[in-house]
Each structure stands twice: as C-alpha cells, then as structure tokens.
Amino acid sequence: MTAPVAAPDAVVAAVLAVQQARRIAVELAAKVGRAREDFETANADLLREAKLARDVAERAEENCRVLALAAYQRNGERRPAPGVEIKLYREPHFEEATALNWARQAGVAVLPERLDTKAFLKIAQSSGNALPFVTWTDQPEAQLAKDLDKALASAGVAAADPAS
Fold first, then answer.
1. What angle do CA 139, 144, 149 make, to 5 degrees?
2. At 82, phi and psi to the nearest 5?
3. Under a CB-based contact definition with an 8 Å cutoff, are residues 86 and 139 in contact?
C-alpha cells in the first residue's frame, strides 16, 4: 500500500507549523535559561550554603561509616548504633587465567579469547563452593538509615540540636 499523496499546500503548511513550533521552543528555552541565571544570581548565597551543608553532611556520613566499620571489626556488632547497619557483601577472588581455562573446558562463560566475567561470576555464585579456585570473602559496608530521625526516636535517642 502506498502512502497518500499530500497536496503541496499541506506540506508547506506542515513545514510552517514545524518552523513556528521550533521558534517557540527556542524562545522558551532562552527564557528558562535567563530565569535560571537570575535565580542563581539572586540566590547565590543560599546556593553556596546548601552546597556547604551537603558537603558537611557527606563528610559526617563518611566519618560515621568509618567509625561503624571500626566498631564492627572490634566486636562483630552488625548494628553498632541506631540507624546504622553493617551489611556484608560477598566478594569473589580468583585468578582470571585459571577461570578462563575452566570456562573453556566447561564450554561456558567464554567470549572470544577472554573470560565473560559477568557470566562466570553468576556460575560461580550459583555453584556454591564447587569451584575450588574461587574463594569468597564477606566485605562489610556500613549503611545509614535514610530516616535517622525515626531510627533515633525508636531507639530513644534524642536528636542532635540543629543549632549546635
């Protein structure tokens, strides 16, 4: 089936509609850009303060994670404080050449001349400890609750005074 033949006037009208739509889009994008610049200029101090507050929060979170991991290393406690949990992630260790030889012999997880690491790790994980050349270690990672107010309140810990 062939497409309907449009009258030349209809095509010209469509081109004009596209031209107008593009012009409006460009004009509005320029207005948004100017408004954004005006906002950033008018709120420069507030934006700087917000960035500084985010940076301080990130450093405080990293410090908390370091302290939580140190506490976990000392006593094995997986919940060293309200709102903090140590999660363990299994991490594989293997020599890639050994794994590639195994994969070739098994006929799996091989890309042309290299190991398909993603596929190999799925196989290694699903086989438990069946692959003697793969060892697994648990790597702890400290995670902080998203809602620390709730976590602290449920543990009966008073929230820090925002003024201090």
1. 165
2. -60, 135
3. no
| Closest-CA residue to 84 (of 71, 103, 102) | 71
In the chain, which ranges are continuous DSSP H helix?
A: 8-42, 44-75, 96-106, 117-126, 148-154
Q: Give the pLDDT score at 101.
A: 93
Q: What is the mean pLDDT of residues 16-36?
A: 98
Q: Other C-beta atoms within 10 Å of 122: how many?
A: 13
- Spatial CA neighbour of 94 closest among 120, 113, 119: 120
Q: Is the CB of residue 120 less than 8 Å from the CB of residue 103?
A: yes
